[in-house]
Design goal:
The complex is a heterotrimer of chains A (334), B (328) and C (527). With 334 residues, chain A is mainly alpha-helical. Chain A is built from 14 helices and 4 strands. Helices cover 72% and strands 2% of the residues of chain A. The two termini of chain A are 24 Å apart. The chains are: A mainly alpha (334), B mainly alpha (328), C alpha/beta (527). At the A-B interface, helix 4, helix 5, helix 11, helix 13 and helix 14 of A face helix 6, helix 12 and helix 14 of B.
Chain lengths: 334, 328, 527
């Protein structure tokens, strides 16, 4: 017999899910359209590339955060890991691009491992575990840098990572694009990706189904650390200095980008693509504000961007409000 | 926030640990004090006490509110931003034409309005969370992001420098040699502890955190209680904001309260209040903040760089929470 | 590894001819309490065995011992001609025993196909081949004649379909035995029919099924034999053709049809007792999907019993009256006035108290003291200007500790350290001290030792005699028979019988509980 897809009540949840994932795309499209129509150079290569170059760092940390959130956890250390990695890579930059890059990534591996172990082996909840990790990463960065910026060496090709271009596009953008492609394939076509979603969707069921829950979570934190460190390397290369005090607020921007993109904080549902859309959306708000100011019609300070981002998050949260999902999920557990 | 993690079975603590736990925080503090007495030069002096208490007071003031929120099983990420709002509002008031014309009234308003505003934002947090069934971490994230922006917009990101002795009493004044903010801190801790023990609100807060379903079925107005705790948290943040700008004689909306939410959460964690809710160890929070502060001071005074102290802080928090969870 | 099942063409001999599973003399203790007492279970190859029993009879524990979620204290398990002792449900699954739980242990947001193949998806060049995954899933479901879009998230489908998916996954692990724990509790008639077709299909392929349910009609529709458990023991195993519902119910409850029992509880209800005015009246009550039309009345000084098998909707009725859940239809009157309690605080103001079924989940605040727990509902009345009057509080607590003989080291002892019986007394006191007009009790003596049981029963008796209206839900027949002045029997969400003092006896109640609605495809129409 044919079983039509139907829910006990209505098929509203299906619509809801579809809408929430498309919603951010629609909002992004609208914002781009608005900018393109209103400002002269909005779609010009200079603006597009500088937006991409700048936001590539946040794109990377948000990607890492996305995977962690999909397992039902959270990673507060992405900002300070990036800072630490920027310092390490700056210190190693005189030796060349590769040592600088590898050094930075190694820092991310260490932090990610610590986080992962605290969550899976020691059994501390992710919020506190990554709070610890965050402080330790921050301290380490400041220690290595002796509380000051570490200049990057221009004698080697290290700065290409941040300031260079490849076939017209900025190198950081390429890195971010590549990371997102890899992330998307990982999520949709590998066991690890599916396990991440399973663990976040129903951890107990995942365990009963024989999935490697602890290993999956550990790997999620590890990759978050690595991606954050990659962002840090780009930071150092782009701005010419490793900055141990940077990274403040990055974790919360990343969380906001992930949530705005439609990924549920409770885990189990998420998309790499919409996370990217969330990053662009939040990042473009800043861009649009700059243009507005430039036009002189209004002088909205850059500070409004925080307010707008906050309001945006609020609307997203309200619209996808927990109530519907709670009712939906309760209907499953009869 | 995800559900509580399963407790690891690797390490073990003696069976008597749960009963000792409340004293463990105190013991750790005493150990630190003893260590310092022995090793650190000039430790026993009013100046040392002063410096430490002053630095810790702001954190504790915020942490009192945070303790209550965590006792209901929630969390408040917006406290730092609310501090920025309150710290930005105060000079705006007493430096305004009205404030300059009526200095006494100006100062009075500058002490009351910012705190009230922060409390109102706190109420918004509580309302948002209960009305939409949103997780506290996301709900308070909104004001974390937008709140600082509001403060920045109000001041256009400008530094407000001022010199207003009657206002700055809150940060710079002393009563019998004790800094005012320390007195405020002690009053708040005592008041919160008393409230939790003796009042209806306090007992209902603990019931909501201890077993929300049972509380609801016993007629406890769960949503109202939650709105209260977030309002109180905002109130505390408001006071802390005033203290900070008073001490600095300036208000920078970009910096006031930066990172404070994590310091408060750390103090609560080390102080022994469980994140699952149901218990509120306000005095523990005070001790927790003191431990973290003293730890930092111990390391600094003995030549360890601040950055290393940060690493130690991170490790200590993990250790504290781990030992807390083991003792359940 | 492809996600597929081999077709087992067993020779279709009579069920029970070759034994697939044999559990004998299984013992299991939990902290001193005996959960299983020489329990046994035997299932033949290619048969559907029903496993029935009331709450606490031991069926879940027996199954958990089989699948390795619990370790047995004694006894042997022989499965597929080998003695086994599975260490975990995963090990049991690998060994050929799959369990389908009442809560769907699948991932709701993932697609049907993914849920079926999770952990073993077919690959191509190292990456998951979704096309093959989807095809495999379609194929597996097709064996049960189920056709749906396997790419849709699992949660889009009804619980019935989700259960089919769980079964399909279970089968794909080469299961020889599938255990289904209350699979029909949230299915409607058509969905149950589909499930039964699936079960028959499994049987025809030589896969055995253990079917745990409290809906007795269903057993007759699809099972070959039935095993009844009670108090941790296996009472009897019979072919379905040799039993009727009434026999099953009496075996489950431990009563013979013509049993005349001596006073077994603390209740002493006088048939001549005069009762007062109407305190509670509800009619045509609808709650959620489970309660379709309930009718209950209680007068002051009266104990009304609400009887029914597990899942008949009794707790849902109680919660709706108390405002804990919204009623979707029907009428509720308290003291003659129509009310629509929207939250417990309102109900408490109306003078209603509600002692819940599950102490741990909805009753006690574990880290709080006896004193705090006892006065929780009364607290606003003990408060002046926001401050709790501790003297009055202590006085009330002392009074009730004495009155209910609560065994505690003192009012400050944390309630989680008390025994179950004493915890229940504290919860009872919580409501008594609010001086309610109507007290709703949901399984007030569950999980409590005999002595405390009698005490609590006498107390309830006394309170009723003093004028309190009591609505008592109980699964223990004696409590209803001896304690109720009136009995309302619920079956499948409807009040099917109303008995008054004089006509309340075990047989009548059991007969009403066994009240039937014919299920499609029933082999033995119930008399």
């Amino acid at each position: 017999m044919t079983m039509p897809a139907r829910d006990r009540s209505t098929s509203r949840p299906q619509l809801l899910k579809v809408a929430s994932q498309q919603r951010v795309m629609i909002a992004l499209a609208l914002l781009i359209l608005f900018g393109a129509l209103r400002y002269d150079n909005f779609l010009g290569s200079f603006n597009v590339f500088s937006v991409m170059r700048y936001n590539s760092m946040f794109a990377l940390t948000s990607l890492g955060m996305c995977f962690v959130i999909m397992t039902g956890g959270i990673d507060l250390s992405v900002g300070t890991t990036a800072a630490l990695a920027s310092v390490v890579s700056a210190l190693l930059s005189p030796y060349g691009l590769v040592p600088g890059l590898c050094g930075g990534l190694l820092a991310g591996v260490v932090v990610g491992t610590v986080n992962g172990l605290l969550v899976t082996r020691v059994g501390i909840q992710p919020f506190i575990a990554t709070l610890s990790g965050m402080l330790m990463a921050s301290g380490s960065g400041l220690l290595l840098a002796r509380n000051q910026s570490v200049s990057v060496s221009y004698d080697t090709s290290f700065t290409e990572l941040g300031q260079g271009d490849l076939s017209g596009l900025p190198v950081p953008a390429w890195i971010a694009i590549f990371a997102y492609l890899a992330g998307s394939i990982l999520l949709n076509y590998t066991a690890f990706g599916r396990n991440v979603l399973a663990v976040g969707g129903n951890e107990e069921a995942a365990r009963l189904m024989g999935l490697p829950v602890a290993r999956t979570k550990f790997l999620a934190y590890l990759q978050s650390g690595v991606l954050a460190s990659l962002a840090g390397v780009i930071l150092a290369a782009q701005f010419g200095a490793g900055q141990p005090a940077e990274g403040v607020g990055w974790e919360l921007f990343s969380i906001a980008a992930v949530v705005v993109g439609g990924t549920l904080l409770t885990g189990g549902i998420g998309s790499v693509v919409t996370t990217l859309a969330g990053v662009l959306l939040l990042g473009l708000i800043f861009n649009v504000l700059n243009f507005e100011n430039g036009m002189g019609w209004i002088s909205l300070s850059a500070y409004w961007q925080s307010v707008i981002r906050g309001v945006f998050l609020m609307i997203v949260v309200m619209a996808g409000s927990g109530k519907k999902w709670a009712v939906f999920r309760r209907s499953l557990a009869h | 926030m995800s559900e509580a993690q399963p407790i690891a079975t690797n390490a073990r603590l003696p069976a008597v640990w749960p009963r000792l736990r409340p004293f463990a925080t105190l013991a750790a503090l005493l150990v630190l004090l003893a260590f310092n007495l022995a090793v650190t030069p000039n430790f026993v002096s009013w100046q040392t006490l002063n410096v430490n208490m002053t630095q810790v007071a702001t954190i504790v003031i915020v942490s009192v509110g945070m303790t209550l929120v965590i006792a209901t099983g929630g969390i408040d990420l917006s406290v730092g931003s609310l501090m920025a709002i309150s710290g930005a509002l105060a000079p705006l008031i007493f430096l305004s034409p009205f404030g300059l014309a009526h200095p006494a009234l100006g100062v009075a308003l500058a002490l009351v309005v910012p705190v009230a505003a922060a409390a109102a934002f706190g109420f918004f947090n509580g309302w948002f969370i209960t009305r939409f069934g949103v997780q506290p971490i996301v709900g308070t994230l909104v004001l974390f992001i937008a709140g600082r922006g509001i403060a920045q917009v109000m001041t256009n990101g400008n530094l407000q420098v001022f010199k207003n002795p009657s206002f700055q009493v809150i940060g710079l004044g002393r009563v019998f040699g004790v800094p005012v903010q320390v007195i405020i801190m002690l009053i708040l801790v005592a008041a919160a502890a008393w409230m939790l023990r003796r009042t209806l609100l306090g007992r209902q807060i603990l019931a909501v955190g201890g077993n929300e379903r049972a509380a609801r079925l016993s007629g406890v107005p769960v949503a109202v209680i939650k709105r209260w705790v977030y309002t109180i948290s905002g109130f505390c943040a408001g006071i802390a904001g005033l203290v900070v700008v008073s001490i600095n004689s300036s208000s920078d909306a970009n910096l006031v309260g930066l990172g404070m939410e994590l310091d408060a959460i750390a103090a609560v964690a080390v102080g022994g209040t469980p994140f699952a809710g149901g218990q509120a160890m306000v005095v523990g929070t005070l001790l927790g903040a003191l431990i973290i502060q003293l730890l930092r001071y111990t390391l600094l005074a003995n030549g360890v760089p601040d950055s290393a102290a940060l690493i130690v802080k991170g490790a200590v928090i993990a250790l504290a929470v781990w030992s807390q969870q083991r003792g359940r | 590894m492809a996600c597929s099942i081999p077709l087992q063409q067993s020779d279709r001999s009579m069920p029970g001819l070759s034994t697939l599973l044999s559990m004998r003399d299984i013992d299991k203790h939990f902290q001193g309490a005996r959960a299983l007492n020489k329990a046994s279970l035997e299932v033949g190859a290619g048969e559907i065995m029903a496993l029935v029993g009331q709450n606490g009879a031991g069926k879940s524990t027996l199954i958990k011992v089989l699948t390795g979620a619990h370790r047995k204290d004694a006894g042997t398990i022989v499965f597929d001609d080998k003695e086994v002792a599975f260490a975990s449900p995963q090990a049991a699954q690998a060994g050929g025993i799959s369990t389908i739980y009442q809560e769907i242990n699948l991932i709701p947001y993932r697609s049907v196909a993914e849920n079926i193949c999770l952990g073993r998806q077919p690959r191509r060049y190292g990456l998951i081949d979704w096309q093959r995954t989807n095809n495999e899933a379609r194929r597996l479901l097709g064996r049960f004649a189920i056709d749906l879009d396997v790419r849709q998230p699992l949660a889009e489908f009804s619980t019935a379909v989700q259960q089919m998916v769980a079964i399909a996954r279970a089968i794909s692990f080469n299961a020889k035995l599938v255990i289904m724990d209350e699979p029909t509790s949230s299915l409607d008639e058509n969905e149950v029919k589909v499930l039964f077709d699936v079960m028959r299909q499994l049987r025809s392929e030589g896969v055995s099924v253990i079917f745990i349910t409290h809906r007795l009609d269903e057993l007759f529709a699809v099972c070959d034999r039935v095993t009844v458990m009670r108090d941790g023991r296996t009472i009897t195993t019979q072919p379905m053709s040799k039993v009727d519902k009434l026999q099953l119910v009496s075996a489950m409850l431990g009563r013979d049809r013509e049993d005349v029992r001596v006073q077994a509880t603390g209740f002493r209800r006088s048939p001549m007792a005069s009762t007062g005015g109407e305190v509670l009246y509800t009619d045509a009550l609808m709650v959620g999907y489970r309660v379709k039309s309930a009718h209950v009345e209680v007068q002051s000084g009266q104990i009304a019993g609400l009887a029914g098998l597990l899942g008949s909707g009794r707790t849902e009725v109680a919660r709706a009256i108390f405002g804990a859940d919204p009623a979707s239809g029907g009428e509720i009157r308290v003291l003659g006035k129509p009310v629509h309690p929207s939250d417990p605080a309102q109900a408490i103001k109306l003078g209603i108290g509600f002692c819940t079924e599950d102490r741990k989940v909805e009753g006690i605040v574990p880290d709080m003291s006896v004193r705090e727990n006892l006065t929780l509902a009364l607290l606003p009345h003990l408060t002046r200007f926001g401050v709790v009057n501790e003297d009055r509080q202590r006085e009330i607590v002392d009074r009730f500790i004495k009155r209910l003989a609560i065994k505690t080291t003192g009012p400050e002892q944390k309630i989680k350290d008390l025994s179950g019986g004493n915890q229940q007394k504290v919860l009872l006191a919580r409501w008594l001290c609010t001086n309610p007009k109507l007290l709703i009790l949901d399984e007030p003596t569950r999980g409590i030792d005999v002595g405390a049981k009698m005490e609590i029963q006498s107390l309830i008796n006394e309170l009723a005699d003093q004028g309190l209206a009591v609505l008592m839900i109980s699964s223990e027949l004696e409590e209803i028979v001896e304690g109720a002045d009136r009995v309302f029997v619920l079956s499948d969400g409807r009040t099917v019988a109303e008995l008054s003092r004089g006509s309340i006896d075990a047989a009548a109640i059991m007969h009403a509980m066994a009240h039937d609605t014919p299920v499609t495809g029933a082999v033995n129409p119930v008399p």
